[in-house]
Amino acid sequence: MTYDGIDSLSSLAEELRAYLFSLGAHKVGFADLQPYRPVIELEYGDAWLDYPRAVSVAVNFPRAVLDEVRDGPTLTYVRYYDTLNASLDRISAYGAEWLDVRGYKAYPVPASQMVGENHLRGIFSHRAAARLAGLGWVGKCCSIITPDRGPRQRFCTIFTDAPLPGGEPLTPRCGACRNCTDICPVQAVKGVIWQEGQPLSERLDVAACHEFLIGIRKTFGKSVCGRCLAVCPYGRA
Fold it and tell me: What is the pTM for the complete model shown?
């Protein structure tokens, strides 16, 4: 079954959104990837060029749990980090199947799967999909910041060729705030506002961050920190 016409496409988007909410999603947005095909091809090759749209899904991280990590990660934080990733994988798998049975291609991108020689990147950026869908902007901490929850959520992505209406990216609203920069224990966050086409190295010392996370992993079994997320003024209770 496919949908034709503006009204039908709107119906498709709203049906999918309602279904994903029923699975536990807290935010759902749709991204038109076509204008960014050259960037996607440069970063990821031709693997995703058959998918002109992306569905971005967020689930909220418990505020009280994230507040605890200002001085470093806790076992509770690690537990919910894994729990929410599992929830996102479930939502994206069922969402992809929902699209598949309606005649559309769909590929669920795992919520937290690191690949590459140093395991420092995913097979696609959930941040990019969320930004293009208009759910939030890329903050100085390099996480997606949404107006109501700040960085206090996690994301997954579903690639598809379903003709879903794209969102409108938001302009960064971090301003002069330096909370995430000042709390970083290795000064990896440089305090630079995100700009289109800007190298990640201008905003984040990836090597310093990675080395610090390796040390965290020895204690908690997972490379997590979260301090920069806990101090963001957006979404604070």
Answer: 0.90
Which has the higher per-residue pLDDT, 9 or 207? Answer: 207
For the stretch 120-123, contacts whose Cβ atoms lie closer than 8 Å and that sit 24 or more positions apart, written own/partner, are 120/206, 120/210, 123/44, 123/47
- C-alpha span between 157 and 58 (Å, rounded): 9
The closest alpha carbon to 184, from 209, 160, 165, belongs to 209
CA-to-CA distance for 193 and 202, rounded, in angstroms? Answer: 10
User: Any idea where the domains of the chain sit in the sequence?
Assistant: 6-230
Alpha-carbon distance of 53 to 57, in angstroms, equals 13
Nearest to residue 100, comparing CAs of 47, 155, 161, 43?
Answer: 161
The answer on pLDDT for 2 being more than 90 is: no
CA distance 146 to 233: 11
> Which residues are within 8 A (CB) of 84 and not within 5 positions of it... i.e. 6 or more apart?
59, 61, 111, 154
Better-scored residue on pLDDT, 218 or 9? 218
Range of weakest confidence among 13-22, 25-34, 44-53 = 44-53
Q: Which one, of 24, 42, 16, 36, lies nearest residue 106 by Cα?
A: 16
